[in-house]
Amino acid sequence: xxxxxxxxxxxxxxxxxxxxxxEPAWLTELRLKGLELAGERELPQLEKTRIDRWNxxxxxxxxxxxxxETNTTPALTELLxxxxxxxALVQIxxxxxxxxxxxxxxxxxxxxxxxxxxxREHEDKVRPYLLKAIAADEHRLTALHAxxxxxxxxxxxxKNVQVEIPLYASFMTEAGETxxxxxxxxVAEEGSSVAYVEQFxxxxxxxxQVVPGAAEVFAAAGAQVRFxxxxxxxxxxxxxxYRRAILEQDARVEWVVGELSAGNGISDTTTYLNGKGSxxxxxxxxxxxxxxxxxxxTRNVHVGRATESDxxxxxxxRESATAIINxxxxxxxxxxxxxxQQAEKVLMLSPTARGxxxxxxxxxxxxxxxxxxxxxxxxxxxxxxxxxxRGLTRTEAERLVIYGFLAPVVAEIPLPELEKxxxxxxxxxxxx
Amino acid sequence: MASTMHFQIEGLKANIENKEILKGxxxxxxNGEIHAIMGPNGTGKSTLASVLMGHPKYEVTAGSVTxxxxxxxxxxVDERARAGLxxxxxxxxxxxxxxxxxFLRSAINARRGEGNEISLMKFIRQMEAKMKDLExxxxxxxxxxNEGFSGGxxxxxxxxxxxxxxxRLTILDEIDSGLDIDAxxxxxxxxxxxxxxxxxxxxxxxxxxxxxYIKPDFVHVMMQGRIVRSGGPELAxxxxxxxxxxxxxxxxxxxxxxxxxx
Lengths: 432, 262
Hints:
The complex is a heterodimer of chains A (432) and B (262). Chain A has eleven helices and 19 strands. Chain A is globular and about 65 Å long. Chain A folds into two domains: 3-70 and 83-379, no CATH class; 380-432, no CATH class. Chain A has 432 residues and is α/β, with parallel strands linked by helices. Chain B starts with 5 loop residues before the first strand and ends in an 11-residue tail after the last helix. Chain B has helices at 45-53, 77-82, 100-112, 120-133, 151-165, 181-194, 210-213, 233-242, 245-251; strands at residues 6-16, 19-30, 34-38, 59-67, 70-71, 85-88, 95-99, 144-145, 169-173, 200-205, 218-223, 226-231. The interface between A and B is medium-sized, with 24 and 30 residues.
């Protein structure tokens, strides 16, 4: 596969596109480098998931197409949670159609805009970070993302600024040929705190496409970042989500991820706990149905001393869906006093559904704590009997048990309106 | 309707994993009556409770159970509950992620039916009042259902459900096991507060002491999967004082347990 002939696009076309969009030269260079690497690198090798059989053909600049003005934009009010309308960003296909930040936050020096605009206007804040947590040369998908990403979001929080209201981004695929490939970059300076909530969704049933998304979070000393992501893309979409955080001393990141897309997907959420005393918490839920093939990885890499991490993944598998769930706690030599915990739980609702929980501890230091718990099972008939004995129908009883299974994550979504939406999505995915 | 409850069990036989545990059980309960079933361990008491509620791991092989003439055995577990049956369980399940109050409201609404749901305010008022009666910490409303509850807290939570659901026929399965004397009194007060002409109880217990707090009208002794002796409260007292040996001798029973290989 490592043949330049497989390059999905002519570098010159890519460069022209970048320049005509007004992108700075350094960004054009990054894209060209990504494209070059895409021709050299293989697809990532994922545990027990043959992604080489998935249809990646649409992931090219042609599919990325030109933004056309004729595309209609859904009413923004339908896309934005009312509580956040003033601090939100909306991208449909390749186009950023809305971006707004309150005057109050602007006055505090907060930046929240699409990443292309940010690269143009805030080079000093974007360039040192962009594609530093996720390197273009990791594999073919990161390389292609580096070449093709569009729109995206840049969130910058200055030193010691506490942003109270969660900032919201909506990324929507578009019927037609435009590629949705957002890159989200969050830079939280020393002592700052912020919550960011994003949603990936499909506008309507659409032709096969790949959504290669990526997010990078940089939390400086003492910064706290909460990152919530809900994915609800349609059956024909391959959903790729690489998320990375790099933490300095005493920084903290909290991930809340809802993988509720209907098609195949790769979800990889990794935190590097570089600074002493930094901590990470990752909560992931996933509901799989139909013929879905999902590969979910949560990874915490302890580099600094006295670092703490926790991860919890809950997956419900219906029909003939398959999920491979990897939890990786890596403790590097020198990370004394580190504590890494993880739990993966899978609930199987059908005999043809499959869920593999793979807890992996890789420990190169003695003075550490690490723990894991994994379980794969079916709905407990005693629980159903108990609930039915109080008058609940079997359907209602099962619904309660399944919700209860997912509740610890759903309850963590920082926006009440989004939490409600997440519940509804879960309900829909559960076929109720 | 409710004022003429008639619950009848006739010739009930039931198996678990092809072992017969109930071997022809007969009992009739009328309006407002409290029946106690006593007996040594392993004589089929808890099986009876589970079979009446419809636990899927038991298979009924013969006999009938009717509530006001309706065939209970034909009903699913939830239909039995909605018909007015309630089983306070010896080992209530834990349901992580589902708060006690969400569950209670769902259960109340399941009985009331669609379009007749209880208002949130009314529900909260009722729940808080009953929890106070049972001396339960209000925090238990927001805890996950039975998760991490102590044995005594689970029993109180069973009685809380009983009080909110107001069933017509309540089966208490060893509700006294694992309760200290204060908790026993609170639980018994809860049950006594529910006593009325329109409500009946079937109390399954190993010990007589619960019956000091909840006075039964009838006492039955169960051995070998059926009732072997019936009487009034004095029967319970004699069993407490003298044990079961005299009764076994009278009946010529050597081994009172069922379902175990000899």
